[in-house]
Specification:
Layout: H1 17-38, H2 53-62, H3 74-78, E1 80-84, E2 87-91, H4 96-101, H5 116-130
Antiparallel strand pairs: 1-2
Helix pairs in contact: 1-5
Length: 132
């Protein structure tokens, strides 16, 4: 039989989640906004589908120089990342859901998710609070 003694073992902080959420929130917000400017799915890094030629012409005329999912800016500018119980939620315009998941007439262009850059930053923050 093998036996060993642990020295200097700190107890876990069982109330680590609220502090972790507060520290994660700005990281998730910034990472998603960076993905929007790059016109990529935040979770996969995959570029959004191009606009259809017909809608591309309409959009270029009506909203010149705007990104694929940006016309007036209302959706992204009004997006609020919030703490929600034991997780997170995003409040935005009603059509954000259709862009995220697509419709029978429109391809999905996921604009919300947890980017890889954020995924690398989140575990150390969690452990910092668990071990504090």
């Amino acid at each position: 039989m093998i036996s060993f003694k642990l020295k200097d073992l700190k107890p876990f902080n069982l109330k680590w989640w609220p502090a972790t959420q507060n520290e994660w929130l700005p990281i998730l917000t910034k990472a998603n906004q960076t993905s929007w400017r790059a016109e990529k799915d935040p979770a996969t890094g995959k570029s959004w589908a191009k606009l259809t030629p017909r809608y591309g012409l309409i959009k270029a005329k009506k909203f010149p120089g705007q990104l694929i999912l940006r016309a007036t800016g209302e959706m992204q500018d009004s997006a609020e990342f919030e703490l929600s119980g034991s997780g997170f939620s995003v409040k935005t315009t009603s059509y954000g859901l259709y862009l995220q998941f697509g419709t029978n007439k429109m391809v999905a262009r996921p604009w919300l998710g947890v980017p890889n850059t954020a995924m690398k930053a989140l575990p150390p923050i969690s452990w910092k609070h668990i071990l504090s």
